[in-house]
Write a structure and sequence with these properties.
single chain; alpha/beta; Rossmann fold; 5-stranded parallel β-sheet; 5 helices; about 40% helix; about 15% strand; globular
Length: about 150
């Protein structure tokens, strides 16, 4: 591994992906960002299956930024599978969504999300949210150790 902390950005909206990447760059977050555009891509990356078959899945992202409204497999199901697998259950998952539905908030935390952030519509507020998110999860937070020896 190159030693850089990776971010897994699970987002199907190309504009939101571009905006998030732009904001991370503006705030000098130089971490590698792996993009998944639906729930299946995210799970394939995390578990080294499908298009990511053969990937060393012992090298996991420092944090997962997870949208809820995703094609193929929705964000809550991705979170459920992440938490149900010993290889990924300790990974920090931040739900980053535009959903204002209380049931999404409750279900996200019930399934083990570490944080739930509603995407602000205002650009400056969105920029500040991403800056703080990067600072906390990539600099201040002490991540769990990698789980090795798992199939």
């Amino acid at each position: 591994m190159n030693g850089r902390k990776k971010i897994l950005l699970v987002e199907d909206n190309a504009d939101d992906v571009a905006l998030t990447l732009r904001v991370l760059k503006i705030h000098n977050v130089a971490n590698e960002v792996v993009e998944a555009h639906d729930g299946v891509e995210a799970l394939d990356y995390l578990f080294g299956t499908g298009a990511h078959a053969g990937r060393d899945h012992s090298q996991q992202p420092q944090v997962i930024l997870l949208d809820l409204k995703l094609p193929k497999v929705d964000g809550l199901e991705v979170l459920r599978r992440v938490r149900n697998d010993p290889r990924t259950r300790l990974l920090p998952v931040v739900i980053l969504t535009s959903s204002k539905e209380e049931k999404d908030l409750v279900n996200g935390y019930a399934l083990g999300a570490n944080s739930y952030i509603r995407k602000p519509v205002d650009f400056s507020k969105f920029t500040e949210s991403i800056r703080q998110l990067g600072l906390y999860w990539l600099v201040l937070n002490e991540p769990p150790p990698a789980i090795t020896g798992m199939p």
